[in-house]
Fold each of these.
Amino acid sequence: MGMPVTVEVVGATDSALHERVFDWFDAVDCRFSPFRTDSEVSEINRNGGERARCSGEMAEVLDLAERTRRETGGYFDIRRPDGAVDPSGIVKGWAILKAARILDGAGAHGFFVDAGGDVQSSGRNGEGREWSVGIRNPFASGEIVKVVYPRGRGVATSGNYARGQHIYDPYRPEKAMDEVVSLTVIGPDVLEADRFATAAFAMGRDGIAFIESRAGLEGYLIDRDGMATMTSGFEEFLAG
């Protein structure tokens, strides 16, 4: 779905393991990409959103999206203003977590999976240190404003600065999403971080308070004026 994917496995000698992970991401793209005319999502949209004969994986993602919609008061919605289904806001975290489980199931205890800036890691890196994730400066792409140490948790960042206006407020779809430029969420795993980061970004400035209210989540918001706001427990992840 147009996102770079990086997979690092500490001490990996079996190239087939990497191939399994990248084959998985290829399969996700083939099934879920709204940009491919031959994807299952595109087929669903051609059928007016009908999901009666959808695959098990598609049903899993659609059910998860509906649960997230309810849990966020409707701020997460995979239906675009034109009515088309676009699961991109949730399938990335779901796919990364599944990839991490492939690695874990193969006995890899030190790994780092990054797809489009959302990350799931485990164990330590090749130097025996904790994995770290940089939060990019949305106003200067070559700069890092914070470095976090997730310690096995997931990290996801939502924003419009890299891909343009692709996140919208479901209650006011015509409104420009310009109050917030970046919102990074740390969650129990990358799926939890990803699904709530998308919804919180759609809430605008209120999104950081929403993240604060959710047990197990921490967040770091940068607004259009360059001011940062973090949740009460976020600082715990800034020390390596």
Amino acid sequence: MIQFNQWPWGLAFFVLYLVLHLLVHPKQPALRLPDTGGFSKPGGRSGRFLAAQGLPWLRLLVVMLLGLALSRPQFGQETVQTHQPGKAILMVLDRSSSMLDPMIFQGAEHTRLAVVKQVFEDFVSGSAGLAGRPNDRIGLITFAGFVDEVSPLTLDHQSLVHFVRSIQPAQRFEDGTMIGDALTQASLRMVAYQGLLGHNGKEALDLKSKIVILLTDGQQSRGGIDLATAAKTAQENGAKVYTIAIVGEAPTGGFGSFFKFNNPFLDTSLIEEVARVTGGAFFKVTTGEALSKVYAQIDQLEKTEFEEKRVVYQEKYRWFLLPGVLLLALELGLRFGPLRQLP
């Protein structure tokens, strides 16, 4: 298998030179023969004249070889199998309007959504005490009154982080907390990804490697898929669900505490059951630091190997570069040496 890594730039240079050469030397293929009288003397002027007529073609050969070298020809010689430890992790994130409630992180008050986005970015890229997940295929689904797949499972974490930063809270017309719908779609996306790996000849994911992280600060809205059905779908498809509930701190008393929106008495029984049924775990957090600790625990999950096949290419530009340089030196030596004074 051969490929030109810099195609067409290297060979385009040769093609351009060839066109110019044919324009300047339109009748060059037929070499002009000098007076035969010169052949009586070996090494005479006629022999040098013929050599001079071949110099443009020698230069053309030089340009062709250098053009091939510039195009960086590569030959694939072997297939290498690599094993990268990693997991398929799908983040399912609540972006309902209640995620605008305040949350303390690093000594300052932010919206819950802002904190969740920052901690998830740290979890993916590695920061603030989190190691990062460079070998994991990570995707993102958000939900409010409907479900939105923001990013499929990918190793392009830079793009994933960009998508995370663009998440906005739900507007009034799209508000809600459709946890069951989001969890069901996450499970089905995992199944689709597993099938894609099998179709490409790669090692299929085993049951322990499909992880869903569900984060919410609310309860299931009426309508849609109930959480019991969603949990069963995840279980049947081998997805382990880790559920995280964001709750407010318990009121400390006083008239103002009566009006707090971030309810500390959120009923989390349903998402706790989801985690139990699928073999995951349930976490309850009140601050950004607590959320970081939860991700640190998830970070310690046992890793599963992915098998990947790739062709190793070897650079072969030297095959063309060295002869091209040598012939160029020969052509310049002839042009400015023995053939210098010939037309």
Amino acid sequence: MTGTESDSIDLAVVGGDGIGPEVCHSAIAVLERALDGVAALFVRHLAGGAGTFLETGLALPDDTLAACRQADAILHGAAGLPDVLFADGTEAGQDFSMKIRARLDLYANVRPIYLYPGVKTPLADQKPGAIDFVIVRENTEGLYAARGGGNLLGNEVATDTMVLTRTGTARITEMAAKICLQRNGAPADGKRRVTIVDKANVLRSYAFFRQVADEVLAKYPEIEVEHIIVDAMTVHMLNRPGHFDVVVCENLLGDILSDLGAAMVGGLGVAPSGEMSTTHGYFQGSHGSAPDIAGKGIANPTATILSAAMMLDWLAQKKPNPNLAAAAGRIRAAVEDVLAAGTCLTPDLGGDASSDQFTDAIIGRL
């Protein structure tokens, strides 16, 4: 690739566990083809979960954390193996994601939910583009802030504590508002809308989340604001998915709703995600490590490839190089073309193509 030093980007690549290295390999191949006028350095690092924990005793070695901190962005495959556990029964591999979020203050987890042509949805009568919303999940607080700090009293009582702060809630809501203003509104009616999801009718912590979010969104009169209790939200997402534009919620609720959203648009294999702060960005598919298919060459790399496109969009806001955003758009267009054609799909999407064949088809479109 060509490019000046100021155009260059340094990317930390953390393959992780299971299919993680495989989908990262596909995403890098697509990135190398799509980037034009940008010198990109891909540096692979040891980390990402259970395998590293078994080898080193750490899911996130200090030198890998330092490299991720210095990189322009981080591309990750997947972390965790269900049978590699800490003494408390939690997955050792998940420590990588949890720690890097905390250490780099990756407070915003952004998960687009979009129905591509050629991808089957379990929802009847939903056409491509009719489901198009973004879940903005607070990523450093909530119930997950208790990881490693909960209490286990003998073998009788276990407690974890919900943590919500004004600063954390305000900044994730600001992120949701900014994303909303960049979009074209909900598919059903074109309205720019932020839906606050919580359990404010029962828990004081969620009532506080709603109060702070309302205060922030009051500064954006052009955005319609609504509140939906989380259990009702699972019903509304299925019954009227086109109503939603941007959804903002606490960490645990966002984790659950984003997986439901992915199922609505074809599964976790086509669901990208980006985790970001004001200075760092970390991008990975929404799926797990899928150890049952690791090494078989049939993993669907779509989510990681689309996450790589998100990464380029994020980098384009920080580096004065129009080629970054252009490459992101080309990647999404190529993915859409291949999915719409339906002739080269991985098994989870109803086809019989290998990961490499699917990747080559996208590169061919580029």
Amino acid sequence: MGIKVEKRLPFGFKGEWGKVYKLYTYTEVASNVIEWQRSSYADIGDDVQFKYIEDGVDKTTDITQPIMNLPTKSEYRLVKTTDAYFNVETSNYECVVGINDIVKIFGCWWVVEKIEERSIFTPSKQTFYYCGLKKIFDKIVIK
């Protein structure tokens, strides 16, 4: 279940290290398995660094929403990461987290709802991955 995470930290990127859990099939060998909504997820085996986009209330991509409909800090967060892995099939680097993965950061459990990729540094081809996380309020069972 382990994914080889390439730590690609640009100058000034300071975030929090978190755990990433991917959907688990019982044919795989894994430790640190959790259960959420009748599905099992396994720890990928590497910590991944995340950073909040900003403090307080996150802005949504749809700026036409009234202020009362903006998601609050406790329910939905936008974070960024630079950590990636090399996908042999596509011969490209891809974000370590994927849609519907479970992430444990900032002392809470989150599910990844969306991922957006943006290249920031042209010379080094550094890529930031922007992830939309929704807080999990259900019980997570640690196996």
